[in-house]
Amino acid sequence: MKLLFLIMLFISSWAIAQSEIKFIVNASNPVPSITNEQVQDFYLKRVRVWPDGIPLRFFDRREGTPERKTFISQHIKKTPRKIDQYWIGQKLFSGDSAPTQLPSDSLTVALVSRFAGGIGYVSGDFKGATGVKIIEVKGE
């Protein structure tokens, strides 16, 4: 019985860890934290520059990845279908397209580190890398 309990505890802890994400920005970005409302504004391109005037570039994760599922449900709070409809509308009416979708943490880190205004999200077990820093999202 104890063994079954420990296995169940391990599995549920593992599942929770797998659904976490961390936000990263370019290492030169002076912003220590952002709000969840800012995450939404950045992703949906309602805000296009950081407070210091640097152009913002949001990097998304590929559709179907656990990180994107977590991002959409916990931070954007829309269904994937609503997100697709939003970006179709933006493309038709303003010419804006959805943020670039990337397949992995390593590619997200590479691109965020390359653009001074870069921001993206990575898996919850990400520990850090040269050229980027992890920032806190308040109001999750």
Summarize the model shown.
It contains five helices and six strands, in the order H-E-E-H-E-H-H-E-H-E-E.
Structure description:
The protein is an alpha/beta fold. It has a single domain, classed as Periplasmic binding protein-like II (D-Maltodextrin-Binding Protein, domain 2). Helices cover 43% and strands 21% of the residues. It has five helices and six strands, in the order H-E-E-H-E-H-H-E-H-E-E. A six-stranded mixed sheet has the order 2-6-1-5-3-4, with helices on both faces. About 11% of the residues have low confidence.
Q: How would you summarize the topology of this molecule?
A:
Blueprint: H1 2-18, E1 21-26, E2 33-35, H2 36-43, E3 57-61, H3 66-76, H4 80-93, E4 100-102, H5 105-114, E5 118-123, E6 132-138
Parallel strand pairs: 2-6, 3-4, 3-5
Antiparallel strand pairs: 1-5, 1-6
Question: Could you name the key traits of this structure?
Answer:
5 helices, 6 strands, alpha/beta
Kindly give the count of domains.
1
How many E strands?
6
Overall pLDDT level? 88
Calculate the terminal CA-CA distance, rounded to whole Å.
36 Å
**Topology-level CATH name:** D-Maltodextrin-Binding Protein, domain 2
Q: Assign the CATH architecture.
A: 3-Layer(aba) Sandwich
Within CATH, the superfamily carries the name: Periplasmic binding protein-like II
Strand line-up in the sheet with most strands: 2-6-1-5-3-4
